[in-house]
Amino acid sequence: MAQRRRANPIDGCPLTAAIAATGGKWKLLIISWLGESPRCFGELCRLLPATISHKVLTEQLRELTADNIVHREATGRVPAPVVYSLTEHGQTLVPIVAAIRAWGRSHVTRFGE
Predict the structure, then answer these.
(1) What is the CATH number of the domain that holds 98?
(2) Alpha-carbon distance 1 to 4, whole Å?
(3) Cα 67 to chain center, whole Å?
(4) So what's the pLDDT on residue 1?
(5) Which of 1, 67, 80, 105 is the most buried (most CB within 10 A)?
(6) What phi and psi values does residue 17 have, to the nearest 5 degrees?
(7) What letter would DSSP give residue 87?
(8) Which domain holds residue 50?
(9) Is 15 helix (H, G, I), strand (E, B) or coil?
(10) Per the domain annotation, does 1 fall within a domain?
(11) Is residue 63 part of a domain?
């Protein structure tokens, strides 16, 4: 089944397009882990905080796939694992995620959290 790219909430605005594609509570974490190596769904479940449900992780992966950030590859017949990896387009987010992580580290240190 072919995925359609999700619509930009504000036509022609690159900032809202970026926020729509990467915003939310979990997408940057998913991108960060997939930036290290391809992962199967179960592995992502173990790496992410326990507060993310399977339903939400599935939704986030579907949205990232629809935005051509993540590639989904079924490895065989059900229930074979599905492997997720960053697309070439998704790889361009790796340095951005690293910069956000560095900023977050500085922010946490600044306020002594």
Answers:
(1) 1.10.10.10
(2) 10
(3) 10
(4) 46
(5) 67
(6) -65, -45
(7) -
(8) 14-110
(9) helix
(10) no
(11) yes
